[in-house]
UniProtKB/TrEMBL annotation:
Organism encoding this protein: Belliella buryatensis
Record-given protein name: N-acetylated-alpha-linked acidic dipeptidase
Domain spans labelled PA: 147-211
Assigned protein family: Belongs to the peptidase M28 family. M28B subfamily.
Peptidase M28 domain mapped to chain residues: 331-515
Gene3D superfamilies cross-referenced by the UniProt entry: 3.50.30.30, Transferrin receptor-like, dimerisation domain, Zn peptidases
Coiled-coil segments: none
Boundaries of every Transferrin receptor-like dimerisation domain copy: 584-690
Matches recorded under PANTHER family: N-ACETYLATED-ALPHA-LINKED ACIDIC DIPEPTIDASE, VACUOLAR PROTEIN SORTING-ASSOCIATED PROTEIN 70
InterPro entries hit by this protein: PA_dom_sf (IPR046450), PA_domain (IPR003137), Peptidase_M28 (IPR007484), Peptidase_M28B (IPR039373), TFR-like_dimer_dom (IPR007365), TFR-like_dimer_dom_sf (IPR036757)
Pfam families: PA (PF02225), Peptidase_M28 (PF04389), TFR_dimer (PF04253)
Length: 699
């Protein structure tokens, strides 16, 4: 028996080592086997059952930001991480938002009176659907009002859609707009409707986008049924985070440090009443509309021809009475202090507030991170503490406008600039079985390499093999808007990634609960453990590498593609555009330096001759690379967004804008500032090249 006990661990380590690259980026040759042994131990310690335990506990009741239920979730997070041996701190902020839906109603007034449904039906097989704490559908940051008016259908409510209505001579002023979800952030639907003079706005999910036109509806399938309602925030200020404290943390009102807050009346919050409805209610309105048929592409999945106007004989009443107030938001941040480099931080995060139960969004990510904190805690207790500090953060009030994480970044911006190695965002990270990721350039390789070390559940393949689908490299997206990486990456210049296993979700509905998760998202509950293993490998490699394992040459490769794409876009409206010559020259120089850096670093690591003092100096310089793209002047669409490299799309809210300064001009079809942007980008890229050259000299 003793012989078998000895052979099995050795065989397991051998098999593990054969599945991963023998050269680990950032590790000296004499440190690789130790790291691989640690990773094998970590993988074995992952308890796949803990994910379900935490998901069940966290999503047992609805817990929107500011609720007592969310306080209970916060306390659970603190308890579990403290029990795991983490140093836990709660960071409070007083933020300005709509805590509750208040009073609302939607009804047809003419040609007959009919109150319209605003909440999901009970479902016999779903024990969560009749929870007494569930609310009607609502949109946080709606204006308050009680209006009765004619109806105008505005398709997805994008800027282009409102422009089309104007072109067709459809007057929106004084009318209630009906728009379907999709195409842009819901807050922009409200912004464009209000700018057009609308008196109110109703938003619904069309069955052609998620409903019976796509497949079976809940509870028989994964698509919206006729009572499903997407909730969500409407906040659309020119920055991310608390509406009243751009650039500054919304510290508690009773804090010793006083923060100047803007006047709520002066920040452009919505004034018209806005509320979401299910397509069952939208059908009742739209079936009565008598105006001209919609243009091509505007028809949805309801069983009749869509019309642009309801006419004078159709009147609808929309009432919303919603309070805005200061609400305490609490971030829970746990730290596993590094053994030799405690002032270099690898940060992982996911928000924990949810519109209802949040079993897929966001708390599949929360539960995975809790399980990971337990596994890493066990390793630390056994003397295998990471070299760098690992921080796991649970953010509050994300659903209202990515608020909690933004306030924390604004509070610790300078410290993060000096210490943060990477931010890994895991919002809804285990909501299915389809692995994917988006990332800043330097972190793409470590995601792919780490994915080769983890088995995909119920498969003989690795996560990488399933993800890549027989390609040499899987598709890795660019980071856009909509989640907690924004402040880290787009404001503070910290390399970031977002990833996980996605799948079906009844997004922001009252049906996003454990019953839906177990029936449709991942009935086996195996993906929680698999994603934990992958995120753990990424974290441990970032934490333990002798030299931070950024792939510096990826900057030039990606920039070449992005500038080429930008030039092609510009030439569609300015065919004689000559290109960004200064930037392209800078990229060429950067490419040469970065490839030289990667080559020399690999040789140096292979020789194993880095001393700790030299490694420390190089690592400190590596932390500054992404900051080359941080421009204090910021973007013309909002100077809070300081990254020249990436931003969320200010017109859609969600999409990723790479080279956002240039992309904004493309959106405006303007060439007046292109020379300025060529100068600014060339300066940033040349600054990055100089930093790389200085790093090479330190070898």
């Amino acid at each position: 028996m003793k012989i078998h006990r000895l052979i099995i661990p050795i065989l397991g380590l051998f098999l593990y080592q054969t599945t991963v690259a023998q050269r680990l980026d950032g590790f000296q040759s004499n440190a690789i086997n130790k790291q691989l042994e640690l990773e094998k131990t970590f993988l074995d310690k992952v308890d796949f059952g803990r994910f379900k335990t935490h998901l069940t506990a966290i999503t047992s009741e609805p817990h929107p930001a500011g609720s007592e239920a969310n306080e209970r979730v916060k306390d659970y997070l603190v308890k579990i991480m403290q029990q795991g041996g983490w140093e836990v701190k709660v960071h409070p902020y007083d933020v300005y938002l709509s805590k509750e839906p208040g009073e609302s109603l939607v009804e047809i007034v003419r040609p007959f009176r009919m109150p319209l449904n605003q909440q999901e039906n009970f479902v016999a097989e779903d024990p969560y659907a009749d929870h007494p704490a569930l609310w009607k559908g609502w949109n946080a940051f709606s204006g308050s009002g009680d209006v009765t008016a004619e109806i105008v259908y505005a398709n997805y409510g994008t800027k282009a859609d409102f422009d089309k209505l104007n072109e067709l001579g459809i007057d929106v002023k004084g009318k209630i707009v009906l728009a379907r979800y999709g195409g842009n952030f819901r807050g922009f639907k409200a912004k464009f409707a209000e700018a057009a003079g609308a008196a109110g706005l109703l938003i619904y999910t069309d069955p052609g986008d998620s409903g019976y036109m796509r497949g079976l509806t809940y509870p028989d399938g994964i698509f919206y049924n006729e009572t499903s309602i997407q909730r969500g925030s409407l906040l659309t200020v020119d920055w991310t985070g608390d509406a009243l404290t751009p650039f500054e943390p919304a510290l508690p009102l009773d804090s010793k440090e006083k923060i100047k807050r803007l006047n709520p009346e002066e920040v452009g919050l919505h004034t018209i009443p806005v509320t979401p409805i299910p397509y069952g209610s939208a059908k009742e309105i739209m079936s009565l509309m008598k105006g001209q048929a919609v243009p091509t592409g505007w028809q949805g999945g309801l069983p009749f021809t869509y019309r642009l106007e309801g006419g004078k004989e159709l009147k609808v009443r929309v009432k919303v009475d919603q309070k805005r107030e200061f609400v305490r938001a609490n971030n829970v941040v746990g730290t596993l202090k590094g053994s030799s480099k405690p002032d270099e931080w690898v940060i992982l995060g996911c928000h924990y507030d949810a519109w209802s139960f949040g079993s897929t969004d966001p708390n599949s990510g929360t539960s995975m991170l809790l399980a990971l904190s337990e596994t890493l805690g066990k390793l630390a207790k056994e003397g295998q503490r990471p070299e760098r500090s690992i921080l796991i953060a649970h953010w509050d009030a994300e659903e209202h406008g990515v608020i909690g994480s933004t306030e924390w970044v604004e509070q610790f911006r300078e410290e993060l600039g000096a210490k943060a190695v990477a931010y890994i965002n895991l919002d809804a990270a285990v909501s299915g079985r389809n692995f994917g990721a988006s990332s800043s350039p330097t972190l793409k390789k470590i995601i792919m390499e780490s994915a080769k070390a983890v088995s995909f559940p119920d498969s003989s393949k690795t996560v990488f093999e399933v993800w890549a689908r027989n390609q040499s490299e899987p598709s890795i997206g660019n980071l856009g808007g909509g989640s907690d990486h924004i402040a880290f990456y787009m404001h503070a210049g910290i390399p970031s990634m977002s990833g996980g296993a996605s799948g079906p979700t009844l997004y922001h509905t009252n049906y996003d609960n454990l019953h839906f998760y177990e029936k449709f998202a991942d009935p086996s509950f195996k993906m929680g453990g698999a994603v934990e293993q992958l995120v753990g490998i990424i974290s441990l490699r970032l934490a333990n590498a002798d030299i931070i394992p950024y792939q510096v040459s990826r900057y030039a490769k990606d920039l070449e593609g992005h500038f080429s794409g930008a030039v092609n876009q510009i030439r569609r409206f300015e065919k004689d555009f000559g290109g960004f010559m200064k930037s392209l020259e800078a990229i060429s120089s950067l490419k040469e330096s970065a490839e030289n850096f990667d080559k020399q670093l690999a040789e140096k690591l292979e020789s194993g001759t880095f001393d700790s003092k030299k490694a420390k100096a190089i690592n400190q310089d590596l932390l500054s690379l992404e900051k080359s793209f941080i421009d204090p002047k910021g973007m013309y669409f909002g100077n809070w967004y300081r990254s020249l490299y990436a931003s969320n799309d200010p017109f859609s809210g969600y999409a990723s804008w790479i080279l956002p300064g240039i992309q904004y001009e493309i959106e405006l079809k303007s060439t007046t500032r292109l020379q300025e942007w060529d100068d600014r980008y060339a300066e940033a890229i040349n600054d990055l090249k100089k930093k790389v050259d200085i790093l090479i000299e330190k070898f």
